Amino acid sequence: MPYPDFDCVSSSNNRLIVEELSYDITSLRNEFQTLIDSLTNEQRGVFEDVMEAIEANKGGVFFVYGYGGIGKTFLWNTLATTIRSKGQIVLTVASSGIASLLLTGGRTTHSRFGIPLNLTENSICSINRDIDASKLLKQTSLIIWDEVSMVHKHAFEALDHTLRDVLSFGNVSNSHITFGGKVIVFGGDFRQILPVVPNGSRQETVTVLLSSSYIWINCKVLKLTKNKRLTVGKDPSEIQQTKLFMNWLLDT
Fold first, then answer.
1. Which end of the chain is more exposed for a tag (fewer CB within 10 A), N or C?
2. Residue 67: pLDDT band by 50, 70, 90 thresholds?
3. CA 38 – CA 168 distance, rounded (Å)
4. Are 209 and 169 contacting, i.e. CB atoms less than 8 angstroms apart?
5. What are phi and psi of 152, to 5 degrees?
6. Are 213 and 160 in contact, with CB atoms under 8 Å apart?
7. Which helix (H) or strand (E) holds 25?
8. Which letter, b or e, does each residue of 148-176 get, where b requires 16 or more Cβ atoms within 10 Å of its Cβ?
9. What class has domain 6-226?
């Protein structure tokens, strides 16, 4: 008799993997086309760039920059639905609990990755090679991290250190690739809430952002500028008022 596939047996006993693969694929495939047709040209460009990186299986780090109302959350859910409809795993996380509730299957980053509360430049996540969480990360096709502007750069670096270590087992070359060769999409707006630096100056606050990390060099920055809230069934006068309010928020 043939030997059993121990990877499949291990996955079936891994609660985290089973949970991420429990979505109704038939329902997701039906929802997929509706979501794709609703994307703007800008969103579709971001979608195609990310999917191309996933299919190439060579890793990639993206940062989607844009203010509230441009449809970042809609884009995250479209990406997640597409990947899950193929029977693959995508981890959707956010820096705050409220933001995570808007994502399908969303979790906070500290909950999902075990990021330490007291961070340093040498911090790592509480994930080692032998636990279920590491096996989940190995099978993950995409990680989406929303609201990154409010998180200290050492949190991203801790995840980078961890993924390089976990994914280098069996493939040493992954230890030299950002995030171990996984495709990661960040989203946020640096004009919103920034990390809190006790008694820190503006310059000290800027230096703890993701844009000040060594990871930023490898980020492909993609911008969304079209406000979808201005195109949802309103008469011209209401759209004009909303547009003026939006510009006032951006200017202040």
1. N
2. confident
3. 39
4. no
5. -65, 140
6. no
7. helix 25-37
8. bbbbbbbbbbbbbbbbbbbbbeeeeebbe
9. alpha beta
* Residue 150 DSSP symbol: G
Q: At 219, list the tokens.
A: 């980020």
What is the rounded CA–CA span in Å between residue 43 and residue 27?
23
N-terminal to C-terminal alpha carbon distance within the chain: 71
Facing residues of 34 across strands? Answer: none
Q: What is the pLDDT of residue 230?
A: 62
pTM of the model: 0.88
Q: Which residues contact 102 (CB under 8 A, 6 or more apart)?
A: 73, 94
Q: Write down the residue that tokens 């510009």 correspond to.
A: 247
**Which residues 6+ apart lie within 8 Å of 73 measured at CB?**
102, 103, 146
Going from N- to C-terminal start, the domains of the chain cover: 6-226
Nearest Cα residue to 104 out of 26, 43, 31: 31
Helical segments of 69-208, H only: 72-84, 97-100, 109-113, 132-139, 153-167, 202-206
Residue with tokens 């087992």: 169
Rounded CA gap, 238 and 241, in Å? Answer: 5
